[in-house]
Amino acid sequence: MDFVVVKASEGLSRVIQAAMDKISRPRAPTLGTIREAMVSGLTAGLIGEGAIDEDDEGVLLGEIDELIRRYGEETLAETLVRFE
């Protein structure tokens, strides 16, 4: 049993929040939807806006891949957002 609560990093939480604000879907975006948005330009747009650091792009993609591996593509992304 896994007792550790995993949350997205601050940078990935920003990406997830931006996706939730920009993607209009009947339900909240999943990890798979977030990853698709990231490789389709969401991350680049956030870098351009200065919301995330350019050096973090590869790290964030690796992080979402790990979350997908751990929880699956259909997991709602908002459940992993870190609020601080």
Topology of this structure?
Blueprint: H1 10-22, H2 31-49, H3 57-71
Describe the structure.
- It is a single chain.
- This protein is globular.
- It starts with 9 loop residues before the first helix and ends in a 13-residue tail after the last helix.
- The chain has 84 residues and is an all-alpha fold.
- Helix 2 (31-49) packs antiparallel against helix 3 (57-71).
- It has one domain (10-80).
- 24% of the residues are buried.
- It has helices at residues 10-22, 31-49, 57-71.
- The model has no long low-confidence stretch (mean pLDDT 88).
- It has 3 helices and no strands.
Number of domains: 1
- Can you count the beta strands? 0
Average of the residue pLDDT scores: 88
Distance between the termini: 27 Å
Q: Could you describe the largest sheet, including whether it forms a barrel?
A: none
Summary keywords:
3 helices, 0% strand, 84 residues, mainly alpha, single chain
Compact description:
This protein is mainly alpha-helical. It has 3 helices and no strands.
